[in-house]
Amino acid sequence: MRISVLQGDITQRRVDVVVNAANASLLGGGGVDGALHRAAGPELLAACRELRESALPHGLQTGAAVATPAFRLPARWVVHTVGPNRHAGQTNSALLVSCFSESLRLAHTLGARDMAFPAVGAGAYGWSAAAVAQAAEDAVAGFQSLHPDSGLALVEFVLHTAGIEAVFRDVLGV
């Protein structure tokens, strides 16, 4: 599996899976979540509402992941994951690692060949870019050891600022 780090707009990535740094409601929000919902169109919100009415009546748990079609995005699927909110006292880094691990697992289950992650938790949820990059590295290493023959060939980290990109490059060694 190849790891790539770049500064850019995750809504424009032509990959099988884009990962959404969602909130538990799955009904849209700010940052990456809002951008993906706007770019995907109203169908994404409708799909998320359907999930809330059926499988996830209480919302998506922190560290978990769920997939929807990507609708108007150039990707095939959106994998939604909810990071722990440090500002709300959720300081267990294992939950942050789980966001990346569960997203990787779900992408593998979907048969994805490539996927793009944002810096889950590094925005409004208060995690440092270094902590998020370390969680991502731990999750990727764990996934590779469990699935050495995975069809997942490329994992991109698509970061909003040059500063976060530099931190990810440093931590991930790419």
Describe this structure in words.
Its EC number is 3.1.1.106. This is O-acetyl-ADP-ribose deacetylase. Keywords: Hydrolase. There is one protein chain. By secondary structure, the protein is α/β, with parallel strands linked by helices. The protein has one domain: Leucine Aminopeptidase, subunit E, domain 1 (3-Layer(aba) Sandwich), CATH 3.40.220. The protein is about 40% helix and about 20% strand. It has 5 helices and 6 strands. The chain has helices at about 30-40, 40-55, 95-110, 130-145, 160-170; strands at about 1-5, 15-20, 65-70, 75-80, 115, 155-160. The protein has a 6-stranded mixed sheet with strand order 1-6-5-2-4-3, sandwiched between helices. β5 (about 115), α4 and β6 (about 155-160) form a beta-alpha-beta unit. α3 crosses α4 and α4 packs across α5 (about 160-170). The chain is globular, with a radius of gyration of 15 Å. The two termini are about 15 Å apart. The relative contact order is 0.22.
Strand content: 15-25%
For the biggest sheet, the summary is: 6 strands, mixed
* Overall pLDDT confidence: 97
Alpha-carbon Rg, integer: 15 Å
- In the CATH scheme, the class would be Alpha Beta
The N- to C-terminal Cα distance equals 13 Å
**CATH T-level fold name:** Leucine Aminopeptidase, subunit E, domain 1
CATH-level-4 superfamily name: Leucine Aminopeptidase, subunit E, domain 1
Overall geometric form? globular
Count up the domains. 1
> What is the structural class?
alpha/beta
Low-confidence regions: none
- Put simply, the count of helices is 5
Helix fraction bin:
25-40%
Annotation, overall tally of beta strands: 6
Strand order of the largest sheet: 1-6-5-2-4-3
The ordered string of helix (H) and strand (E) elements is EEHHEEHEHEH
Architecture (CATH level 2) name: 3-Layer(aba) Sandwich
